[in-house]
Amino acid sequence: MQVTISSGNNINGTLVLPLFEGEETLPEIVEGIPTTLKSQINRVLADGDFKAKANATMTLMGTEGGKAMLIGLGKTDKADVHAYREAGATVVASCKKVHGGELTVVFHDADLASMTSFAEGMMLRDYSYDLYKKKDDDDDEDINLSARINCNEGDATALSAAIDRAASIVSGVHLSRDLGNCPPNDMYPMAFAEKAELWAKQYDNVKVEVIDYEAAKRHGMGGLVAVGMGSSRKPCMVIFTLNGDQKGQHPMLVGKGITFDTGGISLKPGANMDEMKYDMGGSATVFGTMEALASSGYPGKVVAITCMAENMPAANAQRPGDVITTLSGKTIEVLNTDAEGRLVLSDGLWKAGTDYEPEYIVDFATLTGACVVALGHEATGLWSNDDDFRTRIHEAGNDVGELAWPMPLLPAFEKEMTSSKIADTRNLGAGRWGGANTAAAFLKQFVPNRGEGDDAEQITWAHMDIAGTYWGAKTNKMVGHGATGIHVRTMVRLITGE
Ligand code: BES
Ligand code: ZN
Ligand code: ZN
After folding, report:
1. Which of 92, 126, 153 finishes a domain?
2. Nearest ligand to the C-alpha of residue 274?
3. How many domains does the structure of the chain reveal?
4. Under-70 pLDDT residues of the chain
5. Model pTM above 0.85
6. Is residue 206 located within the same domain as residue 99?
7. Do 23 and 76 meet the contact criterion of CB atoms below 8 Å apart?
């Protein structure tokens, strides 16, 4: 969706009028509204027929032409950037064929951040995954929308720059959603890698390296290999580097990329198994974040690793009871092949901490059903070995309206995961209780230390379990269907501070 800025007052297409609850009036400045539409809006507002509660909408049509959509922002004192973002998204979600493809938004008296948020909400919500559907002119989703925001001349330059940046970040969110929504027959490890390589060609300051199955075996990536070997679509690791010529410490992202999780030999039940195409949501988050950073021109260095595999039951698949040796040298007793995300991440985290210079590592994974039990679809589970860092991520999430909730990383959980009789560690807790926490504690064992001897200290690390938030979030107004693309914006906020 194209959003442009105009410092004029004219209306093109449908007039979009954001209003505060209790202050429902037509702004003076609006020009060029057909008289009958104008009187209709004034009458509806004067009669109190439209209450501008948050996300309430009403469409009006003048008898001599012209259309308007009224959109509620709620009470003035509650109308923060989140309310504006949701209102923008609601406008797009409510657009039908009758509204046409052009919108002109006229704010009463909104500041730059509010207008940018509204535009961001419109752009975020203007998404549908229809690659595999024939185009249908009668489908409301198929309208090509463009919007213009009328603002004061003084605001135009700054607003235009802010909206351009927001559009770049939205391109990252939408990339994450496209990757997640792609059906698993077309989204397999090397297909993801090829998409990454193709993507990198657009940018001079981006590099993508693919460690294929043979190389992964040679390097000793026992976790990645064990999970992926039972599929005819072999596993791989994809490494994204932005501004690699810069020296010094940099943020590092790691993503779980199970392009389909059948559970393997510990086969999942059939109901809703199709949803396990989203099990590469962590890798999509990481890829989307790199796109958002690259396209918005972020100048710093960032490196990301995605661990790609398809978890299939097969004659050559790993078995419950197998002991594997990971890249770290640590052995794992695989007690359940459905706890595969932590196996591929063990290699990704180790590589991230040993081959690069991370200021911090953040991993993203649709890791556990237990996290969905704990937090539902409302918040991502957030663990960290550094309380201040965890708070920074929590706050970055709050700032952009993507909730990540603090969860405990307790020594008892770690102990539970190291109780194997025959290996260094095991991929299953002693029981099902606290399953999201034991999974996090398992991952912690694969985060390397910085420094040696007495100076050794574990690298700052956070784990984000997006099993409940990468898809299925019904209350998320930015999303119509399918993958949410969550936390691309959180990461941009964390990394860039903007
Ligand atoms: N991909 C699943 C986690 C998942 C489940 C995500 C439901 C979203 C919705 C993961 O690989 C898995 O199967 N985890 C197991 C772990 C268990 C065997 C310890 C789980 O959560 O049941
Ligand atoms: Zn699984
Ligand atoms: Zn999984």
Report:
1. 153
2. 1
3. 2
4. 29-30, 137
5. yes
6. no
7. yes
